[in-house]
């Protein structure tokens, strides 16, 4: 099996390089409005944003920033297939503007924008970020009532384009082989994720600190899970805010095609520096999933519970009939092509 992974340098408000209805899944993390590190970027897109911030008008700045993101959401509506899924990782912002501290609810604003475009909202996920400080509040210390809770979570908002789910031909191999294990389903499809950090190891690319600060990178586990949850082998995943390329890396490991759009070509050079490590990473990701499943089997048997089915491709039992056809993939080779990479996949090697 082969997949292709294209990355375009350009403004994601114009995804004309991506055909209409050519993408099955979007997984992305945009710049968060009203987070100060993104002020300059948003002001470059619309100088009125900088004027509003300078004037102490936080609400107008917030709305103007989201107006720029909405131009990207318009493009997502165009390129997604009917029934396709968009997963938007976004955090709210807390900020003092003109002496007034408040929260700016980015997740609510993005939800409203997608609904206006005819997307159906699906249950979302909260994932907890590791805190850098033991302090759990901001404001007046130990004295009530003027302290504020800290924001230690982000949202993964999930939308479907249109009212109908995607349809597949009966017993489609690319769908059944992409199944997840029963215990993975129970863990992944819960609405709060507290275990996403450190579970999968990303490539340690030699990116400089400034590049990392200017990316909206999330842990590899997040896009990898979402891609496994909401797409089948051979589907195409789009990330319009490509950054360090975490979504593309996850798509390579998961056996999906990908498309990315990124303003700064420096990120592409950094990604290319680590491309030779992708086969080993993909193999470790697949083996880790299988090892976790076998640990689950041991725990379940220790509880006196049995299994009715055996996996077709692995020497392990599974809980449900739908899991029998699971066939994990690994990357065997990565070749450079114009605007990206061609990846050769093979069934996961266990030796």
Task: Please provide a written account of the structure.
GO terms for molecular function: DNA binding; N-methyltransferase activity; site-specific DNA-methyltransferase (cytosine-N4-specific) activity. It catalyses: a 2'-deoxycytidine in DNA + S-adenosyl-L-methionine = an N(4)-methyl-2'-deoxycytidine in DNA + S-adenosyl-L-homocysteine + H(+). The chain is of the alpha/beta class. The mean pLDDT is 92. Helix 2 runs antiparallel to helix 3 and helix 8 packs across helix 9 (246-254). The chain has a single domain (2-281), classed as 3-Layer(aba) Sandwich (Rossmann fold). It is globular. The chain is built from 11 helices and 16 strands. Helix content is 33%, strand content 26%.
The rounded Rg comes to 21 Å
Structural class: alpha/beta
Q: Note the overall shape.
A: globular
Strands in their spatial order, largest beta sheet = 10-6-9-3-2-11-12-1-16-15
The CATH C-level class name = Alpha Beta
InterPro entries: DNA_methylase_N4/N6, MeTrfase_CN4_CS, RM_Methyltransferase, SAM-dependent_MTases_sf
GO molecular function, one term: site-specific DNA-methyltransferase (cytosine-N4-specific) activity
GO biological process, one term: DNA restriction-modification system
Family: Belongs to the N(4)/N(6)-methyltransferase family. N(4) subfamily.
């Amino acid at each position: 099996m082969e997949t292709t992974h294209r990355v375009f340098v350009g403004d994601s408000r114009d995804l004309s390089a991506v055909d209409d209805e050519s993408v099955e899944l979007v997984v992305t993390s945009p710049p968060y409005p009203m987070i100060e590190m993104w002020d300059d970027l948003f002001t470059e897109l619309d100088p009125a944003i900088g004027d509003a911030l300078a004037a102490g008008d936080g609400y107008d700045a917030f709305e103007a920033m989201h107006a720029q993101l909405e131009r990207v959401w318009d493009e997502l509506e165009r390129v997604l297939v009917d029934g396709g899924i968009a997963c938007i990782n976004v955090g709210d912002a807390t900020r003092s503007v003109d002496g007034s501290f408040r929260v700016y609810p980015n997740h609510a604003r993005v939800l409203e924008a997608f609904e206006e475009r005819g997307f159906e909202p699906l249950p979302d996920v909260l994932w907890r970020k590791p805190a850098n400080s033991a302090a759990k509040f901001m404001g007046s210390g130990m004295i009530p009532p003027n302290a504020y809770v800290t924001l230690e979570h982000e949202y993964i908002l999930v939308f479907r384009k249109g009212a109908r789910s995607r349809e597949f031909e009966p017993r489609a191999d690319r769908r059944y082989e992409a199944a997840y294990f029963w215990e993975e389903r129970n863990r992944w499809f819960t609405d709060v994720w507290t275990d996403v950090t450190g579970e999968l190891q990303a490539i340690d690319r030699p990116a400089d600190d400034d590049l990392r600060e200017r990316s909206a990178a999330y842990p590899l586990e997040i896009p990898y899970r979402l891609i496994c949850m909401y797409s089948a082998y051979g589907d195409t995943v789009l990330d319009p805010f490509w950054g360090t390329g975490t979504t593309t890396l996850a798509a390579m490991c998961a056996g999906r095609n990908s498309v990315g759009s990124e303003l700064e070509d420096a990120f592409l050079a950094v990604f290319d520096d680590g491309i030779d490590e992708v086969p080993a990473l993909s193999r470790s990701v697949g083996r880790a999933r299988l090892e976790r499943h076998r640990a689950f089997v041991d725990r379940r048997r220790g509880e006196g519970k049995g299994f009715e089915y055996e996996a077709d491709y692995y020497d392990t039992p599974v809980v449900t009939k739908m899991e029998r056809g699971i066939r994990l993939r690994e990357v065997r080779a990565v070749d450079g092509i114009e605007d990206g990479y061609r990846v050769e996949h093979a069934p996961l090697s266990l030796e």
